[in-house]
Design a protein that fits this description.
By secondary structure, the protein is an alpha+beta fold. The chain is built from eleven helices and ten strands. The protein has three domains: about 60 residues, Beta-Lactamase (2-Layer Sandwich); about 110 residues, Beta-Lactamase; about 60 residues, Beta-Lactamase. Keywords: Kinase, Phosphoprotein, Receptor, Transferase.
């Protein structure tokens, strides 16, 4: 006999012994070979002398409910797998700020496995002291239904180095619709931010070189208006950078008889064609 047959036989024997059973699941095999799930109550039938003469079962068909539950479990399992394996750090906290979710990517970029962080206070454990209040407000807002997008969240990894995550903080809602915490989905932008900082430093160096070069340097936009005017060209022309920015180079500083030729040279430059040693 199968385990289901043994369980049903046990319930029936209990009922024949006068002991009722409630809400036991009865797998019923139909004519076409399918199994229906019945939720049953088994009660003893008694004769005139109160002797047990049989068993009566009363129940309802819960096959569709069981199928829906199985489908929902499959969906939940798929989502759990997606969260675990997503190529982005994902973490969750409850309303007390304690960690309830920590996916593989979060573990990778921060160096802490999930089992080591569950139940720990997220802010105090992984956020720099000077920004703990700000991050705490973002989490608190999410726990009250106010979501935050594209928030730069500086995390501290196991090596005590900062990992910058661009974070979307959303409310975490249970099956009843109640907000139970926050879930954060992020993107590690540490290398990107470092690259941008280095590029900005290079750009600042170039601006200083241009500004202090021992040669007149000027630039215009596509409308012919001045966008750069270094110290040397200011000394030569007698016009400061503040006076020049935004003004038309041709109309303001080029003699009428030369404007056409200079305009042609500038137009070539705006088209990517260089002109060397032009007076």
């Amino acid at each position: 006999a199968t385990s289901s047959q043994q369980e049903v036989a046990y319930v029936l024997l209990k009922a024949l012994g006068g002991e009722e059973s409630t809400d036991f699941e009865f797998p019923l095999l139909t004519r076409d070979g399918q199994t229906r799930s019945l939720l049953m109550n088994a009660t003893a039938l008694r004769g005139n002398n109160d002797e047990v003469t049989g068993v009566i079962g009363v129940g309802h068909d819960v096959s569709e409910i069981r199928q829906m539950a199985a489908e929902q479990k499959n969906i939940a399992d798929d989502l759990a797998w997606f969260v675990k394996k997503a190529n982005a750090p994902i973490f969750g906290v409850n309303r007390l700020g304690l960690i309830t979710e920590w996916n593989d990517m979060a573990a990778t970029i921060l160096g802490y496995p999930k089992d080591d962080v569950l139940g720990k206070p997220f802010v105090k454990s992984f956020i720099r002291a000077d920004v703990q209040d700000e991050v705490g407000r973002v989490i608190s807002d999410a726990c009250q239904g106010k979501e935050t997008q594209h928030f730069e969240c500086p995390l501290i990894n196991r090596d005590n180095k900062e990992v910058l995550v661009l974070l979307n903080a959303a409310s975490r809602i249970d099956a009843s619709g109640k907000i139970v915490g926050m879930v954060g989905v992020g993107q590690d932008i540490t290398n990107l931010r470092q690259s941008m900082t280095e590029q900005n430093l290079i750009a600042d160096d170039l601006r200083r070189i241009i500004e202090n070069a021992n040669a007149p340097i000027l630039a215009i936009d596509t409308e012919g208006c001045v966008t750069e005017w270094n110290l040397k060209v200011a000394a030569v022309s007698g016009y400061s950078k503040a006076e020049m920015l935004g003004k038309s180079l041709l109309e303001t500083f080029i003699h009428k008889e030369y404007r056409k030729e200079v305009g042609r040279i500038l137009a070539l430059g705006l088209q990517g064609q260089e002109t060397d040693n032009y007076e």
